[in-house]
Amino acid sequence: MTQIKKPKxxxxxxxxxxxxxxxxxxxxxxxxxxxxxxxxxxxxRSSGSVGANYIEANEALSKKDFSYRIKLCRKEAxxxxxxxxxxxxxxxxxxxxxxxxxxQETTELMKIFGSIITKSQ
Length: 121
Hints:
With 121 residues, the protein is mainly alpha-helical. The protein has one domain: Up-down Bundle (de novo design (two linked rop proteins)), CATH 1.20.1440.60. It has helices at 12-29, 34-58, 63-86, 93-120. The radius of gyration is 16 Å and the shape is elongated. It starts with 11 loop residues before the first helix and ends with a helix.
């Protein structure tokens, strides 16, 4: 008897966790300039807040609280995109590609949270 495998639904909680991990990996690879260190600290905070606020949204006690937390997720994602743009890769191709991919993922997360906000109103 063969089992039918259901396609795995992509969990947004996992996705935001992986996003924060990718940001940390990116930060470790960057040239250690004063601006990268300071911008990196901000980026680490905001990228981690995306997932943390999503977890809080899923535990919300009311629709209003849920909406507020999702809006915070989008806000933190926007802030993360800002810090990513400020990061100096030293024009290294691998870091530029990583930066581009992080920017794309951040934009996708912003759109997902924006869509959730629209649908929950």
